């Protein structure tokens, strides 16, 4: 995975890091013995670090998956109620 949208805030011995975790993994192969396609998922994450001596240690991590819209969705303004 790789990180994007990284923001860091430090106050004393505490640091807050927010980011997007871009996770890639191999999907199932169509044919046995072949590699499957890459599939991806986004997770927005919040990480809290505490400084202990000269080291920063993870104190808390929270991640939530980002829900992606379906490709077949269309903007359908006709579904809105009319007066």
Please tell me about this protein's structure.
InterPro entries: NTF2-like_dom_sf, SnoaL-like. This is DUF4440 domain-containing protein. This protein has no helices and four strands. With 83 residues, it is mainly beta. The protein has a single domain, classed as Roll (Nuclear Transport Factor 2, Chain: A). It has a four-stranded antiparallel sheet with strand order 1-2-3-4, with no helix packed on it. A hairpin with a 2-residue loop joins strand 1 and strand 2.
- Main beta-sheet strand count, sense and barrel state: 4 strands, antiparallel
CATH architecture: Roll
**Which stretches are poorly predicted, pLDDT < 50 over at least 5 residues?**
none
From the helix content, strand content and strand pairing, which structural class follows? Answer: mainly beta
Span between N and C termini?
49 Å
Strand arrangement within the widest β-sheet reads 1-2-3-4
**Total count of helical runs of at least 4 residues:** 0
CATH topology: Nuclear Transport Factor 2, Chain: A
How many independent structural domains? 1
Q: Radius of gyration over alpha carbons?
A: 20 Å
Organism: Streptomyces cinnamoneus (Streptoverticillium cinnamoneum)
Protein name: DUF4440 domain-containing protein
InterPro entries: NTF2-like_dom_sf (IPR032710), SnoaL-like (IPR037401)
């Amino acid at each position: 995975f790789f990180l994007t949208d990284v923001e860091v805030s430090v106050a004393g011995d505490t640091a807050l890091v927010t980011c997007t975790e871009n996770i890639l993994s191999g999907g199932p192969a169509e044919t046995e013995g072949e590699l499957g396609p890459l599939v991806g998922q986004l997770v927005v994450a919040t990480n809290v670090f505490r400084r202990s001596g000269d080291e920063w240690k993870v104190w808390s991590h929270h991640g939530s998956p980002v829900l992606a819209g379906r490709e077949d969705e269309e903007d359908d303004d006709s579904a809105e109620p009319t007066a």
